[in-house]
Amino acid sequence: MDAGEVLDVDLVNPPDRGRPPAVTEEDVQRVRYLLTRLSLQLGADRERRRPITRFRRFALVDWLMDLPLEPNLIDQEGRKREIRAALRRRYRYEPSNIPNDLGVPGWVRTTAIAALGLLFRARISGRVPLLSGYYRWFVRRHSLAPGRVGSMPSVATALTEREWPSEPEQTLLFMVNSFMEDIRAAYRNPLKCFLGIRRTSCCLLTISNITRRNGGYHLLRAINEVRNASGLTDPLLVVTESQRVPPFAEPPDGIAPVSDAWAAYLDWTLQGDPTQAARAWYLPLRVPPTPNDPEQRRRLDRLLRAAPWLEAPPDPPLARAARIGSAALVVAAGAYSYAWWSQAHCGNGLSWPGLRPTVSWVGSECVGVSADLTVLFSPLGPETERLARDVATLNAEVDDRQDEQPTRPVITLAYLGALSAPGPNTGALTAEIEGLKGVAVAQRRALDSTASTDPLVKVIMANAGQRMASGHLVADIIGGLARKDPTLVGVVGLNESYRETASTVNALAGHGIPTVAATVSTDSFARDLPMYFQIAPQNRREAAVAAAYASAHTGPGQERSVRIYFSDNTSDVYSSNLAEDAREAFKAVGFDVTTISFTPDGNDPPAAAAPADRHVVNAGAAGADSCGYRGVAFYAARPMPDFGSFLATAKNCQPFQPRILAADDTTRYVANDQARELYPSIAFDYLAFAVTLPSQAAATPEQDFYNSYGRLFPALPGAGESLDGHAALAYDAAETFIASARQLSSRPQPVPISPGTVAGRISSITAPGLRGASGYIDFGGEVDRHVPVDKAVMVLRVRGGKVEQESKMNYCGPPKPMEPRTLDWCPHETPKPR
User: Please, is 402 exposed, middle or buried when counting C-beta atoms within 10 Å of its C-beta (0-12, 13-18, 19+)?
Assistant: First the structure.
């Protein structure tokens, strides 16, 4: 309590000098009444900055003193049971009477009620640290409790209505001590004391006209004896006024006048050990009568004002500096830890990623899973930011639609890929942007559907880093999210075939999550990986189409030979696998085959040479190697930046340029307008897994897809022209999950939609199959087949830096009449008998 803020209680009963000092029941009641008034005023005074509002111990003692116990309860255990029952009624602690509105099972409710009862009994016992709280004070030695101390109910039995009058002296001390302990607790805050933030004055009480009859003397004597017996300090300062000097009602002769209060205080502090003295905590001062003469009153007022203030000595400068420095250090450490945690998990130092974040930095890449595309994509560009807003809007619309149509199923798909690229070239991520657009189109079309069995689709993004280097880590994160979110049924994306891609798919399968890859074509993936499916054809079909195309377009007299250029990067299983398949396919159509390996940009030569007929140092040397060659130069390596280097040297070939046929991954290069138009002087053909221009699409779901694509992304340059086909392939990957979920929910007895049930349903997609934006998707009705039969492959032509419209004629899909666009020279697969 701040100095000068005084609480007054006037005891108006006249003094009785003949009253003996023994404590009676009436004295206890008078002091009890006095303390009750004081506690109410201490908590109710609105002028106090920090009122003392919680007199929990004194309130409990006051309540116990009015508590009647059954007179027939003679044994101690019975009385303690009655005390516990009374405490439950006092706190309205009757969990068995709480209505069961939540439908909790009976055994859970019964167990919870029993556990809560045991916790309550342990709390009021006063024996359990922390749990017992203020009840623990009742059983401590310095509480001066009456009766047998063992547990709080044992103490309480000695304070009940019929018991405490037998020990008024001890009850008085215990009651006053409970009041003082509540004041001590209000001032006790170790953290604030350490920081120097504490109450800086005593709790000051002024009580006028105290006597032995009205309880005033007994209150002071009890405070004195409590301090002597407990040895505890307290912040209570009591200023009283009486005719005689307590505690023995002595005349005021010989005591110091109030004008000498400072000297009297110093003498009092220099006394010997006063702990056992009956007046140890008294400092009597004689107050002269108020003078009638105004001049004398003014002189007295000046004397009082001139009296020195009693102030606590200031803290040593070093102690204050240590507290302030410690506080500043704690704040700085907390701020630094917060900023470090945020930045370590792809934040800006202010955003909070949570205690279990799903994104983190691995080198210079932010890898992990997020619903915010801008967190993962690097580098960011205007097109990416626009796409991120569109996906977030679609996800929010799914939430709103679910409220409107609660019976519609909801599935969540994770788009997984290499969403970060080295350097500031945003064009290097064109294929990933197109893939996400395709998934967004699937989201939009699902929202536009109104059938109750058609699922709504939410999309989250996952970045596994360049070349899928962090794929296993991201797979574990997706697995953890799937355990919390039952709507997460699968993964789409996966645009590159590296060894890390295979390990990522295996890790996802370990978590029971199926994967539908959009553009992956390596043979071993569909053959060896469980819970894996792909939309693109395998490399062996692509090589067969490439060889058939080259054979059909090699006229009489032209050289029937091929040079296959591929990467010697041992982790790039796509390039080495395609080169081997191409070697077999070209040999089968009567071509002479030469395989030539080169080291990709940014890679060191492998320790062991690649299995090739010859080796050149890099892609530029490979392009130079094709000069003067009259056969087919089949490029079976990665597009960025190696295909550009290949063309940069091949364009200078004299007297004629090579006949270049590039593999499907070159669509990434073609989709980048800046790269494709850099060398318009050289022509090349390339393979693609989907139509790349709306004008090439037939009046089928291909056209439906491109119409939706154009509506969803109308303001983007080149809107509606997905030159690499990745948007269509990713759309079909998402549609494969959507169709499977739709079939599960459309059955007479709907099957729960989960990763396992969806994966099983994908295998059953068979003739006529699912006609998607990239052609027919037919898994042939084979349980162990994970790639569509006769999946469409196109051969497109680039002339003058532009993709020619007439290239739509080179289409290889299912045989006629199922697919009229399929050309006669196209090879076909032979599925197993059903």
Answer: middle
Cis preceding linkage at 748, omega within 30: no
Q: How confident is the model at residue 539 (pLDDT cuts 50, 70, 90)?
A: very high
Confidence at residue 720, expressed as pLDDT on a 0 to 100 scale: 40
3-state secondary structure of 365: strand
HSE-CB for 532 with a 13 A CA cutoff: 27
User: What's the number of CA atoms in the CB half-sphere (13 Å) around residue 617?
Assistant: 3
Q: What is the pLDDT of residues 598-614, one digit of tens each?
A: 999 988 888 777 889 99
Q: Are 823 and 790 in contact (CB under 8 A)?
A: no
Neighbouring C-alpha atoms within 13 Å toward the C-beta of 601: 13
- In order, the DSSP letters of 125-146 are HT-STTTSGGGGGGGSGGG---
Provide the sign of the torsion angle of the four alpha carbons 168, 169, 174, 175, taken in this order.
Answer: positive
Spatial distance between the Cα atoms of 38 and 207, rounded to a whole number of angstroms: 10
Which helix or strand (DSSP H or E) is residue 567 part of? strand 561-567
Q: Residue 255: is it exposed, middle or buried by C-beta count within 10 angstroms (0-12/13-18/19+)?
A: middle
Rounded to two decimals, the pTM is 0.68
The average pLDDT across 335-362 equals: 88
Whose CA is closest to 55, among 34, 77, 29, 36? 36
CB 509 within 8 Å of CB 530 = yes
pLDDT > 70? residue 632: yes
**Positive or negative: CA dihedral 488, 489, 492, 498:** positive
